[in-house]
Amino acid sequence: MNKDLEFKKQYLDTKSASFCAAKWYNATIWLGSGQTTSCHHPLPHQIDLEEIKTNPKAIHNTKQKKLERKQMQKGERPIGCEYCWKIEDIGSDNVSDRVYKSKIYSGESLNTAYITPCHEDFDLQTLEISFDRTCNFACSYCNPAFSTTWVKDIKNSGPYIDLQSDGRNHFTHTHDASQKYGYGEFNPYVDAFWRWWESDLHKTLKELRVTGGEPLMSADMWKLLDWFKHNHGKSETRLSINSNLCPKDELMDKLIDASHHIKHFDVYTSAEAMWSQAEYIRDGMNFKQWHTNMLRLIEQGSLDGLHVMCTINALSLDSLPELIDMMVAWKRSYGKDYPNFTLNILRFPSFQSPVVLPQYIKNIAIDKLKFQTDVYKDDLHDMEINQMNRLIHYLQSVDSPHSGADTMDKLQHDFKNFYKQYDQRRQKNFNSTFSKEMVEWYGKL
Fold it and tell me: Which of 49, 82, 97, 163 has the smallest number of Cβ neighbours within 10 A?
């Protein structure tokens, strides 16, 4: 039996049909807006500002999470975790992310979460935080809530117009609530993090991952790197950073130097396409610079792991297989973990989901991915093969990005109208960037 399925049957299904350890031990927290979620699939919700004044652990242990823990203990499906339910409902042998989010914890931790009353606070073991939304990128699937460059787009050119589907609100305003406090201004959520970190979080946390925006542009990120340097050996926490790896050269130099002062250090980055297509999707990216900095980290840095997170959107299918080819070539040169990769299927904005594409275009990617899962089976981790197979099954059988998504005609309408405006605002050209099949289909919308 597949090891991941075996884990699910032995450690999750024996507790409940919906149990996921992420609700207890994992969190993403946006300190700029004071919001949190249990992983990157459920939508974020607000942290109680009054509660964190006396209990900094409440930046994770919110009332909503405690309610969802109770649901999972009873085998009920929290609505916000619909991504995993959709994957599992495709077929019983599909491995959803709740398996990967749970298997990183010990059996004892899983049992403790399951039997402990849902109202009790839990110490995090894995945490992803964003100090603020400052970012030098404005990726097409991102929005002003996570990027100051996106904010400039909306301020300079106004809202995107004539979008009809459920994703339209991403691109209509500057999302000021996502950054409630200005540069240098006291932020009670950041303060709560530092109070918890310095008291005992640095003792209990197994992994701390910092994201953004672009964390290399955050003063608190460098404060954290300095804390590890000056408190060497005080914490066993693995530090990870989500970076677009296209910073100024001096910041890249500082990052490589800092890596040698941290006992356990991982770098996560994002890419899902190659060259001009990657730069189109992830506006602000210099693919050559990204490629160079990947190799610099491998060859000059001191890393436990280097990870590429691929956000699978409609435009990425054109050259995703070529990106996998390149990553396998690096694995063969530097080792199986340099890099690792994940294939995270985009749901929001839903008009950028791969489901908007006609089946014949999806089939082109499916055929290439099937070939790769065979020829690269010895080069890839089981998890990577599972993620590729999951994407294949998704492209073959799923016809809606999520429950409640708009009709396909609205999604395709917004796909066309968004990228027409995107081209004008960003000085890009869809027709000269993507494949003949993609361009012909786009022209008929």
Answer: 49
State whether the Cα torsion 299-275-305-210 is positive or negative: positive
289 class by beta-carbon count within 10 Å (0-12 exposed, 13-18 middle, 19+ buried): middle
User: Rounded CA gap, 346 and 329, in Å?
Assistant: 26
C-alpha span between 212 and 197 (Å, rounded): 19
How many Cα atoms are found within 13 Å in the side-chain-facing hemisphere of 192? 25
Question: Model's pTM, two decimal places?
Answer: 0.86
At a CB cut-off of 8 Å and minimum separation 6, what does 276 contact?
287, 433
Strand 26-30 with 35-37, pairing: antiparallel
Digit-coded pLDDT (tens) for 181-231: 998 899 999 999 999 999 999 999 999 999 999 999 999 999 999 999 999
Residues 6+ apart with CB under 8 A from 391: 312, 343, 345, 369
Residue type, 186: F
Q: Is the pLDDT of residue 400 over 90?
A: no
Q: Which residues contact 18 (CB under 8 A, 6 or more apart)?
A: 71, 72, 75, 76, 77, 78, 81
Strand partners, 208: 127, 239
Provide CB contacts within 8 A for 23, sequence distance 6+.
38, 65, 68, 69, 72, 78, 113
Backbone region of residue 360 per phi and psi (left: phi > 0; alpha: psi in -120 to 50; beta: other values): alpha
Is the Cβ–Cβ distance between 418 and 163 less than 8 Å? yes
1 pLDDT higher than 70: no
